[in-house]
What we know:
Layout: H1 6-20, H2 28-35, H3 39-45, H4 49-72, H5 81-92, H6 98-106, H7 112-124, H8 134-149, H9 156-167
Amino acid sequence: MLRTSRRQQIIQAVIGIIEQRSVEALTFESVAAAAGISKSGIIYHFPTRHDLLRGVNQHFIDQWETELQEVAGAPADQLTLAQRLRAVVVTLGGNADRAELLMSLESHDHPELPQMWAELEDQWMSTDPHSELYPVQLMALGLWAHDHVHHRALSEKERADLVATILDRLPKD
């Protein structure tokens, strides 16, 4: 069995705090208590709260990039835009984790965090809002956040049907 690194243990504790409470609840003390590591142990890996936020964002970015490549079967640079968007739609078809959604919103308050996301998104998504495929990614993003912004959560079947409907809007390769 692989041992979880201290850094990964801290990241998981941060995600748990955000998931259960909020981004505002994130302090060195709360992370130390949740991770079972001393405050100085947290600071060793993440000297500032901003470093914690950057670390969690990078974790989510790496996780999504892995999912995108698994679904697409190749890295972004080996795929057409339609193939990349197909992977985006499939990976965003599930309900957003609360922590990931909150971090996505929070990242806009920190100048370089959106840029971290933009690097991945630029590889996998259309950046031109006038592109005929841009509405497809907007639908996928809306589906991803749906249950957190709408009063009625979607069932798994409804999600699968919506993913299929969105995928039908992509050109066939």
